[in-house]
Design a protein that fits this description.
There is one protein chain. Helix 3 packs across helix 10 (285-296), helix 6 crosses helix 7 (187-201) and helix 6 (150-161) packs antiparallel against helix 10 (285-296). This protein folds into two domains: 6-146 and 284-296, Rossmann fold, CATH 3.40.50; 150-277, 3-Layer(aba) Sandwich (Rossmann fold), CATH 3.40.50.1400. The strands form two sheets. Strands 2-1-3-4 form a four-stranded parallel β-sheet, with helices on both faces. A four-stranded parallel β-sheet has the order 6-5-7-8, sandwiched between helices. The longest helix is centred in the N-terminal third of the chain and has 18 residues, at 56-73. It has helices at 22-29, 37-49, 56-73, 91-100, 120-133, 150-161, 187-201, 227-236, 254-270, 285-296, and strands at 6-12, 78-84, 105-110, 139-142, 170-176, 207-213, 241-245, 274-277. With 303 residues, it is an alpha/beta fold. The protein is globular, with a radius of gyration of 20 Å.
Length: 303
């Protein structure tokens, strides 16, 4: 009997390939509607301030490569691919490669650990569309979330430990804000982030707070409290030492490199708050361990 071969699709949001690609990237996000000159220049200036682009694609490819090696050491017959929602290689490209390689089962894993319909749920829609278009007949599995994986906790504990905190510090966990809709009130998303935040905080014994960052400049009700508002609130309550931990993300991206490291750091400085920022886990061994464990729970091939 021949063992089945899994195709693992690691899915991430995407990033422009330099400043010249920002307009194409933004247009894709807006579903083929070109951004205004003001919108375009604003996004370009943010990317310019972090060197012209984020390392998200590079990190996601490294995660896929390291996961491939981890799987091979386990003796599992599986192939790992990286796909982006809004940049090359797209999720559809990764699905196509997996099908061309003759995989028997496709397992889709968003690199973001927390589920929301409008967030990671949209990644699955991209994968499902490509699978249907290409007429794939194998089985398909989706890893909705992996927020409770021990590897994720260990990765963030390792990162926060480098900050050298004591109990005089307050930890502010942040995650990406999302629009609240009738179809998704984001209660599951919030609960998962609280679970992960609490699992990290218990190792340090600091007081902690949760906020949401990087809401789009669009109408509607977005999940909060907003991180900038929360920082001001903490300052008014006498907080003088604040450690920001962007736990809602895994890999460095525009939101962590600009919003957190620049905007929130400057805000803390203006309010007289000493600020430390935890580095992103990116492709750390613990993240690879977590991704493998999430995969193994959805596979009949993995031990």
């Amino acid at each position: 009997m021949v063992d089945s071969v899994d195709g693992i699709i690691l899915m991430a949001y995407g990033t422009p390939n330099g400043l010249d690609d920002v307009e194409r990237y933004y247009t894709e996000i807006l579903r083929s509607k070109k951004p205004s000159d003001m919108q375009l220049e604003k996004l370009k200036s943010r990317y310019a301030s972090i060197g012209g682009g984020s390392r998200l694609l590079e990190i996601t490819k490294s995660q896929a490569s390291k996961l491939q090696k981890f799987i091979e050491k386990k003796g599992v017959d599986a192939k790992v691919y990286a796909g982006m929602k809004y940049s090359d290689p797209h999720i559809a490209d990764a699905v196509g490669l997996a099908i061309d390689d003759g995989v028997d089962r496709i397992i889709c894993i968003p690199v973001a650990p927390f589920y929301s319909a409008i967030g990671t749920g949209s990644y699955f829609e991209k994968a499902d569309s490509a699978i249907a278009k290409l007429g794939y007949k194998g089985s398909v599995e989706r890893v909705d979330s992996w927020y409770s994986e021990p590897g994720l906790e260990k990765a963030w504990v390792e990162s926060v430990s480098r900050l050298g905190l004591d109990k005089n510090w307050v930890i502010l966990f942040t995650a990406h804000s999302m629009p609240v809709t009738p179809a998704d009130d984001l209660s599951l998303y919030r609960r998962q982030i609280i679970f992960a935040s609490n699992s990290v905080q218990r190792h340090f014994g600091c007081k902690w707070s949760l906020s949401f960052q990087s809401a789009a400049d669009l109408p509607g009700n977005w999940i909060g409290p907003d991180a900038a508002w929360q920082i001001k609130e903490l300052a008014e309550n006498g907080v003088k030492r604040l450690a920001i931990v962007p736990i809602g993300f895994v890999s460095a991206n525009l939101e962590t490199e600009y919003d957190v490291k620049k905007e929130y750091a400057m805000l803390c400085d203006s309010l007289g708050i000493e600020c430390k920022i935890a580095e992103m886990p990116d492709d750390s061994d613990f993240i690879i361990e977590a991704l493998y464990s999430a995969y193994a729970k959805h596979s009949t091939s993995a031990p």
